Amino acid sequence: MDAQVTAGAQVVGRVAALLRALSTTMPEGVSTTELARDTGIARPTAHRLLSALAEQGFVDREAATGKWLLGPELYLMGTVAAERYDVTEIAREHVAELAAATGESAFFSVRRGNETVCLLRQDGSFPIRSFVLHEGKRFPLGVASAGLAILAYLSPAAAERYLAETDLAAEFGAAHAAEQLRGRIAQTRSTGYAVNPALIVPGSWGMGAAVFTPAGQPGWALSLTGTEHRFAPERRPELGRLLLDHAHRLTERLARR
Q: Which among 22, 106, 217, 238 has the fewest CB atoms less than 10 Å away?
């Protein structure tokens, strides 16, 4: 019986990994080989699980390309779950106002465990844009300005435990080593907003501010991205004030829901 329970849990974990990986892809979908690589699941196993999910409507497969996409059943489930969890409609106007006021691309992200997931993107009027972040894109906490803003406002014990258990430098480079992140966490706590100085894609800067749950925990973040010269030192305080103002107002609105 224990072996059956363990095997069942492994299947659930693999299915969840495949669905999460699919949720981060661009609208054109992704191949079985790419999903297997990204999830660490053997290709035949990935194909078998995806085919079973397709039979139930949880994923779709494009006949012309063979690429997989999220299916209609997940959309239907999502509309039901949105009644309890979705705050994007409340956040949407703040994202739009930030994009309009700054000319940059503005975002709203949610914390999911040790990751952030981008829920909303609104491009501003400035013609050169960064495409590091898009709806569905996931980053570990501490990577990108939204994840850094959230990590900085976890309890010191929780932040230290996360840094001790997570090797971000292995995937994102030495600038994401624990000691480097501690310095950026301290700076974020000092100013109130996080800065990503082109640590993911050269020339693409970001700034973020945490949005808090009624219990006072960092549950979401508002952020801006753009080219380096648009985030010059003399402009950062202005962008930071805008982010903090909208994050504070959004926090208050969510508390009144």
A: 238
